[in-house]
Amino acid sequence: MVLDLFAGPGGWSVPLHRFGIRDVGLEWDEWACRTRAAAGLLTIRTDVAAYPVHVFAGRVRGFIASPPCQAWSRAGKRLGLLDQDVVHQAVADLAAGRDTRTKLLAACRDERSLLAAEPMRYLHALNAVGEPEWVAMEEVPDVLPLWKQYAQILRSWGFSVWCGILNAADYGVAQTRRRAILIASRVRTAEPPPPTHAEAAEPESLFGPGRARWVSMAEALGWGATDRPVPTVCAGGGPGGGPEPFPSGARKTLADARARGTWTAPPAVEGTVLTPHARRAGRSTRHGAPGHSPAAGPAPAPTGHWTWSLRSNNQANATIRPLHEPAGTLFFGHRANECTWIAQAPATAGNEDAPTPAPIRITAAEAGILQSFPAEHPWQGGKGQQFSQIGNAVPPRLAAHILAPHLGRTLSADDFTLAA
Length: 420
What we know:
Layout: E1 2-5, H1 13-18, E2 23-27, H2 30-38, E3 43-45, E4 62-65, H3 79-82, H4 84-95, H5 101-105, H6 118-127, E5 134-139, H7 144-156, E6 160-167, E7 178-185, E8 197-198, E9 212-213, H8 217-221, H9 250-260, E10 308-311, E11 320-322, E12 340-343, E13 360-361, H10 364-370, H11 383-392, H12 396-403
Parallel strand pairs: 1-2, 1-4, 2-3, 4-5, 8-9
Antiparallel strand pairs: 5-7, 6-7, 10-11, 10-12, 12-13
Helix pairs in contact: 4-7
């Protein structure tokens, strides 16, 4: 089997299933488990830190771990950075067969920090029976020093190991998401997968075709020059869901803009005909919004030509990317990290005073596609639970390229289009 710790909503599982391989995911979050169940993914709902390892011994070919990143992420308080010495000590102790977690947990400023040491508890027990054959782990970039400690231990056990930072955009994900990756193998040289994409398209050479240009948000979402950026209301996707709130009249404004032909895509997308992704059942175009009074009349339609960008959060230093580029790293989990589509200044001279359409929150379905999940992935829970799952997941397309060599697969730039 392939054992997947902190399996989340299926970032590693989706490509494994495309390869015809089933993993066993260990996950605690209720809504991630419900999403996995709806997607047909085998899951054990459990506390990874408490589950016994011996039940897997003798059956594990591949080992995957993506410990929770909240303690280390730049989107949070980053107390994990203050706990690094404690986590390094836990990894060293577990690698030697000493379980000091209870004592060390009391010294942590964020109890989630120590979860980054849990993979070593499993690896130590599995190594006693000569398993696994290969290892793949993923976390935020600040965890790289910890991965280097894991690498040193795994090499002493006979593994070939590589660890470093990979950019998801280099592998066809419509997002410049940088992650610390560890790859280890007992049977082959561990090395990073060759990138298939680059910031600028590369010409063909004597060595073959060059890398394709990074995938833009417009390409991933299937938005062409005649499509407004957010044509639907998120239906919530499960218990606790419901219409996603948005500024009054914003979608009516965009609907009018589309009808009048006054919205235009950025130059790189202008004139491109892209097939929009099919929308899931339960999603439909709405004119107006909760709290909007029809008696007040429709929101004013823009009279200029607008380009649309994605703002990564509502903080002053938020990353803003136009549709013809990949998104910045998508963070979710609390209100400060809400991503919104925003209209940029009119491109047509003389329309500088035209009213700017109000910002519109990104939907969970759109965020999932930008994370390279299939458009039909069955996200469960209300919008908060869905966004939390998406923001914490490894991008499936990046995972596919990491896993492919271990599974005897070769991927090109175009043969693993997960969001199609």
